Amino acid sequence: xxxxxxxxxxxxKSTTAHVVWASAxxxxxxxxxxxxxxxxAALVLxxxxxxxxxxxxxxxxxxxxxxxxxxxxPIGGAIIGHYGDRLGRxxxxxxxxxxxxxxxxLIGCLPTYSQIGVWAPILLVILRFIQGIGLGGxxxxxxxxxxxxxxxxxxxxxxxxxxxxxxxxxxxxGIFALMTKLPDADFLSWGWRVPFLISILxxxxxxxxxxxxxxxxxxxxxxxxxxxxxQPVWEVxxxxxxxxxxxIGITVSEVGLAYLLTVFTxxxxxxxxxxxxxxxxxxxxxxxxxxxxxxPLAGWLSDIxxxxxxxxxxxxxxxxxxxxLFWFLDTKEPALITLVLVVTxxxxxxxxxxxxxxxxxxxxxTQVRYSGASLGANVAAALSGGFSPLIATALLAWAGxxxxxxxxxxxxxxxxxIATLMxxxxxxxxxxx
Length: 433
Description:
Layout: H1 2-43, H2 45-49, H3 55-87, H4 89-109, H5 113-116, H6 119-147, H7 154-162, H8 164-179, H9 184-189, H10 194-197, H11 199-211, H12 217-224, H13 232-238, H14 241-272, H15 277-305, H16 307-321, H17 324-329, H18 334-362, H19 369-385, H20 388-399, H21 403-422
Helix pairs in contact: 1-3, 1-4, 1-6, 1-7, 1-8, 1-11, 1-14, 3-4, 3-6, 3-19, 3-20, 4-6, 4-11, 6-7, 6-19, 7-15, 7-18, 8-15, 14-15, 14-18, 14-19, 14-20, 14-21, 15-16, 15-18, 16-18, 16-21, 20-21
Organism: Bradyrhizobium centrolobii
Membrane topology: Multi-pass membrane protein
InterPro entries: MFS, MFS_dom, MFS_trans_sf, Sugar_transporter_CS
């Protein structure tokens, strides 16, 4: 009996480790695919796909196409979440990998405005929409897959999947930092395409790894009990609407900060402050690297102190740092810029994003967990993530200074604090069945 139990425990641990590894690797690849577009939008897409506009207006147009991916995310979340709750978590994770990889690779193949005219931005929008559909079901599927295998350490194991985000940020920003060392003519001609084209190799690796995943025990139980719902998305909106609204509320600050810190800061530093691209890109990479450690730490702490404690701390720090972030950026000192991005990313985004992998799915029962987490995360992403660089750029132009952007960060943070106070503590409860 003891030997059998030991073998079972070892097998379960091995399965959990493989699920975490496969989910984190796939998520890193998909975030890389999604985030290289944001960096490209800040650096080059306005010149190649919207050349007839004033440079600032061209940047706004590029960010508008950037936002299209976030508009698509709730649609992808609803479609993929529906089938994830009906057919299983594993199958949908393979589908999202294909959608993201194909969309990203084809962006790298696109002719520019000078080659095919208005069809260039139209095709860019279509491919960005496909990217959004894929990511809409990716993150939620990956974290649901992990926490339904993770037992009582859902916060820690879930946060390991979140490391895929800073890996994606570091990889996306790092490769663009490398490409920008090319002469401008080469960068504009072919250098910008390289980050998109190599995605196909990364996706191939992730696809193979994910094919070997085992379906989660919680979903298997639902199938065995014949409790699979015909319309899980409708059930979320009809019966789990409170959890759905809370999921949106606790996410808007985190997802907004993610893209303000990694995308808008690039625009602010290069256009408003006139800094070399390399300075801000390097700072973003260093901040993302630090999150390799701080995200798992935040997830681990949320298992000890609860999800709400970490979220409230992250929300308060987001308010406190909204103005100092720009004070340090305005010094134009590379060391201080790197320092403020590292500190801000650690005390705001990491404290929110680390526990999110467990907190979000824990709000929903097994039958609708994939759909609920997908809808909550992606509606919030559409509201604050995709439009944050666009809104921040417009606010900067309107106000002529960063203060309006700081107030925008504070407003998002207050929403998250209120939602967190209204949400139940889920860290010490078993997953809802």
